[in-house]
Amino acid sequence: MTLTVDTERLRADIERTGEFGAVPVERGHARTVRCGTDANRRAREYLVEQLRAADLTVEIDAVGNVAGTWCPSSADPETDPVAVGSHLDSVPEGGIFDGPLGVYAGLEVVRTLQDAGARPARPITVVSFTEEEGGRFADGLLGSSVATGRRGVEEALELTDADGVTLDEALTDTGFRGEGLLDPKGWTAWFELHVEQDTVLESAAVPVGVVTTITGITHCEAHIEGEPNHAGATGMDDRTDALAAASELVLAVERAAKEVVATDSTSAVGTVGSLNASPNATNVVPGAVTAGIDVRDVRRASMDRIVDRVRETLARLERERGVQTTLQRPFDLDPTPMSDQLRRAVHDAGAQAGVETLDLPSGAAHDTMHVADATDAALLFAPSRDGISHNPLEWTDWDDCAAATRVLAGAVADAADVQFD
Amino acid sequence: MTLTVDTERLRADIERTGEFGAVPVERGHARTVRCGTDANRRAREYLVEQLRAADLTVEIDAVGNVAGTWCPSSADPETDPVAVGSHLDSVPEGGIFDGPLGVYAGLEVVRTLQDAGARPARPITVVSFTEEEGGRFADGLLGSSVATGRRGVEEALELTDADGVTLDEALTDTGFRGEGLLDPKGWTAWFELHVEQDTVLESAAVPVGVVTTITGITHCEAHIEGEPNHAGATGMDDRTDALAAASELVLAVERAAKEVVATDSTSAVGTVGSLNASPNATNVVPGAVTAGIDVRDVRRASMDRIVDRVRETLARLERERGVQTTLQRPFDLDPTPMSDQLRRAVHDAGAQAGVETLDLPSGAAHDTMHVADATDAALLFAPSRDGISHNPLEWTDWDDCAAATRVLAGAVADAADVQFD
């Protein structure tokens, strides 16, 4: 049975979702959809409408995760469902594919199976997780971290944004504070389709990637305390400039990651993504800097080597520049290998659909990292033009979206023991 | 004739002024007195009361500069007065001495001369300039820039703050939108006493500094444009990280200033005081950075050498890192030498009062920079404990305030051709 995805139907859902929180930009398509905002409410409401229109039963859990389940008469409602999905939120001025592709590909899989008269033995659940990107209430992967028990429900609901608004309040205000909790342990398998955000598939001209391992991630926060002082009246030898010290740290992180790439693991990355100086006035020697450091690799040892270099650098800056430093590590996830069985199923589905597939690691975190703790999980990638993401220029050709959705449909059909008329 | 300053009277005025806009802090004394605010109104009203109480005739000019003139019968009202003063506004959470010391030392000079039965041949004018610190309507030195013709009155009155309020409105609302304009060209001499904001006097244990040259100041704004991208999915060799590039710039500015100090001019300083990264999220490779650079020296050539190094560094970063850069120079003031004749008069006054004096440059900008274009100008410094200023811990001992005011009184008396009974 060859499954035919409706490219235009998939495209319409993704484009419509891209209108919520849209930001005018010169080139590309930008949207800002932070968790629990009005744009997020509209994106979720549109999803609920589309799930219901396709005959799925919708549940909203306590932290706003949305699930729609298709349980036709062929399926035993007591068996574990196959789940498929991603997220709807975005980074500020992010693109329209990161997240929505995986959610609407999941829904399109169900619609495709319905159109083909498929009779699954298991229910199929389409999922949208809360605050995957992070940045308002948490560092990211919020909904999946609660669903998989890494974080307590109450603790999550009490998380506050910069203005003191709790997740509970934001979800209640937008109508997405539900009850109960999604339980990935009760899923027989989980699939997520996402944009690659790198150039491996584009370079190889292959439309579907099958992730072998999701990179481990450490977030460190380095605080450097110098002495704020008058930029004119304080001689070069009398200052303890926190920003000059922080600049050495930024370059040390870059250098350490490049060394690990050259010697150990080509997938390792180290980034100082955020830097906040205080008092941050042109005519004042900076007194304090906080820097947010992101370290990732599919090998734990490579990550630790880069973090060790951060520690050594801070110790050296204390000795050489007289600053005081602290290092916190608020976020740390091991590398996560994907299910071998589901990977084989995805490759087989590709072969059956006549779509080429390719193994590759994921440098980005995804909700699948958490779900893989609870059940067998697979992560599929579609090509990103120029590897660009978290950016208005993020782009995946509609034909590639459809090809990846066809492969996804084949793999989901296999996991759900689908029979055709 | 030995002049005796009333330390307690001077202290009472400075402490009272420190109460306007006071901010509770754990240690020290903080005040936030932005131009044209209620705190500024109260500080100005108190000054006007004290000027009138000492028999000075008060004028408010079009941009809110306050002047009180003592013209006793001994003085010819047609001759050019001697002017002395400073400013009353502060940086956010600034100290109580920066500005008010110079204004109330000026008034205390008049009261001291009155108490001593002095008969000046010239009037003596005590001045408080509008918005010396800047930050609400302008970069700083606002009142003196208008009084000396560097900036037009109408242009100044139309300056707006971040909320769109004009200087005209703020002055009118607080009752300090006067008429006409102070004219420093009509002053025979100008004196300003200010806190040093560095440790030269403290280290030398000398209570009065006599400024040789006020540093020149350049403010540059460098903009570095890289490519924002996913911190996990973008390999180390595929990124154009604006923050890593900016970090090289920060260190290049520091290095360039230190080299100039070592080879050319010990007073040179170069600071990257502000740095704003975008999107400034830990998990995104920084796409753009704007850095505010402050370069100062008493030698123009040293300043230019540091700015040249900024330009060279940006050009190198374009070549080596593929970033795009721009450099703007919104603020540029030449070094300003003080009047040799008035400097000698201040040293002589110190010798006569038995107070040690010391030549030194000023690394900070002061209204005296502008006034020196219009007439002979002198700038005196009192010691700053630990060199701290623009900070609640700013402190100058009351005895040092009084000693500096005695020296100031001697120099003003000399310039005003004072006779004693």
Features:
12 helices; globular; 421 residues; homodimer; Aminopeptidase; nine-stranded mixed sheet; 36% helix; Alpha-Beta Plaits; alpha+beta
CATH topology-level name of the largest domain in chain A: Aminopeptidase
CATH architecture of the largest domain in chain A: 3-Layer(aba) Sandwich
Strand proportion of chain A:
15-25%
How large is the radius of gyration of chain A? 23 Å
Cα-to-Cα separation, first versus last residue of chain A:
10 Å
Q: How would you describe the shape of chain A?
A: globular
Description of the molecule:
The structure is a homodimer of 421-residue chains. The first copy, chain A, is α+β, with helices and mostly antiparallel strands and 421 residues long. Chain A has 2 domains: 7-214 and 335-420, Zn peptidases (Aminopeptidase, 3-Layer(aba) Sandwich); 216-333, Alpha-Beta Plaits. Helix content of chain A is 36%, strand content 24%. In chain A, the strands form 5 sheets. In chain A, strands 3, 4, 5, 7, 8, 9, 16, 17 and 18 form a 9-stranded mixed beta sheet that branches. A 4-stranded antiparallel beta sheet of chain A has the order 12-14-10-15, covered by helices on one side. In chain A, strands 1-2 form a two-stranded antiparallel ribbon. In chain A, helix 1 (7-19) packs antiparallel against helix 3 (100-115) and helix 1 (7-19) crosses helix 12. The mean pLDDT of chain A is 96. Chains A and B meet through strand 11, helix 8, strand 12, strand 13 and strand 14 of A and strand 11, helix 8, strand 12, strand 13 and strand 14 of B.
